[in-house]
Structures are given as C-alpha cells and as structure tokens.
Protein: Excinuclease cho
Amino acid sequence: MRIRTSSVGFLMPQAMSRDKALSASLIGIEAANLEALPQGAGIYRFLDAAGKPLYIGKSVNIRSRVQAHFRTPQERALLRKTRRIDFVRMAGEAGALLLESQLIKHWQPPYNVLLKSAAPAYSLHLPKGSFQPQLVDYDDARFSAHGLFASRRNAEAGWKAQIRRHGLCPSLLGLEQTTHGRACFAHQLGHCRGACIGLETPLAHTRRLRKALKQLDQYMWPYAGPIGIHESDGQLQQVHVIDRWAYLGSLSECETGLRLPGSARLDIDTFKILSARLAAGLLVQVDLQITDNGRGIRNCTFQFQDKAA
Structure:
C-alpha cells in the first residue's frame, strides 16, 4: 500500500472501515489516501483535481475528523470535487489552530467561511499635548499605542466603556459637542466628574485619561520580542514562534532554524487563539535564540531536549 506522508515523523496507516473506504472511492478519493491519515493533531486539506485547497480544517485527531465529513450530507458538494486529502501533523491543538488560521488566509479555500479575513487591528494613540486619543492601526510604528481591538467598531465601543468606567468627560475627549459653560450630557447622568465645567482640573482629567489608556495595555504584546510555545504529544515536539501576535512558523526536531521577517503584522485570530491560554498559563513558553546577521535578517533557533533524557 502506497502512503503519502506530508508531515514530520513516521506515520503508520491504520485500517479504516470498509464502508468509509468504499464511499470515498465512489467520489474519486483513493482508499489508501484515507488510510494514511493519522490519529494525531494537525491540519488537513481537501484538494481538487488541480491540487488547490477546497477546504482546510484542523483537529486533535485528523483521521476521526475527516471521517466525520463523509457522514455529513451538507458536505456532498465538497466531497464530489475532492480528489485527494493531505495533512500536516502538529504536536498539539495550539499549533493546529495557528497553522489552520494561517493557511486559510493564504489559500482562501471556497468552502471555508471563517478565518479568511486578515482585517487590520486598531489601537488608541494620545498625541502629545492633546486630550483626545486617536484611533490608529495597531501595526503603524509611528505611534505609541494603547489597547488592541479587532475592528474600528469594537475600538469605539471599548473606548466609550473606558470613558464611562473612569468618569472621563466625552466633551473634552472630542466625542460630544457642548456650548460654552454647559455640562456635557454624561455629567448630567452622573458619569462625568465635571471637567467640562471646571469641577475637575485639566491636569487631573489628563492623569485619569492616561490611567484609562494604560489599563488597555494588557491586550498589547507583553514581550520584548518573539516567544516560543512548546508542544509535544509524546512523538512529535514543536516550538511555535510568535511575535506581536503573529504566527511566524513552527520549529521541529528535524528543522530547528526559522528565518524571521523584519517586522511581523498582527493577526487578530492568533491573538484570540493564544492570549487567554497564555494568560492562564496553559501554554509552555520557552527561550529562543535570535541572531542577526547585520543585514536585517534575523534567524531563530531552539535546542530540543533529547526524548530519552
């Protein structure tokens, strides 16, 4: 039996039920292709006759998840167009999620709905001498920024919530127009401490404004540079390299070097995948060795421990 392997490590085929193999062969997928699918974590791709991805998925058990597609009547159109299924093994769920998100954005498969957009993220920047924070692109290096928001709408809603929480004045922040000498509407509702009518000094208001912005920094990238996240399933070890909430790739025992870009553009989906897990201590962080050849090219390496040690 010929087995196609596109992952790190050695994979032993396991028998698939006769019914599943038969149904696959009827729609043009070789049974041997399905028998080679592993029972470990990773991503899988349904490919058309030209080898282009129709659908990309992830699972902690690739074999079981692919079998589930053949039991779903709504996916018959996808299955009819599929001629081959390939996969990439990952050492755990986090790596599978990261790679799936990256590949879907790159290939834009027609049968994937989620994760296809790479929309910009937003932050707040307070210009020097100003009372009014401005919404800026998170990746714009010209600005010192606070907070991380998945959309302009989320940024506006999140900032308004901070304004109310800290009793800031919408009028001074440029969000409300008031006539001279009159209190803003928020003050009439008891949400503003009265900076608009002189009950609070501009200096005191600015200090609380900076405090409110500072509280948003918990969502910014909290590390000095790239970090490594180690995963192992007992057979495969990997370190996933992340910088400024961008997934840059994974290192494995047989490929311990990774070239890093000069700057990484944030992926909000990577933030959603990792931020809560990192904050809860659910992921193992490791030190990376970052070297610079002097020409703006950075290389990342990691020394894996011997499994027998």
Q: What stands out?
A: Confidence is low (pLDDT under 50) at residues 1-22.
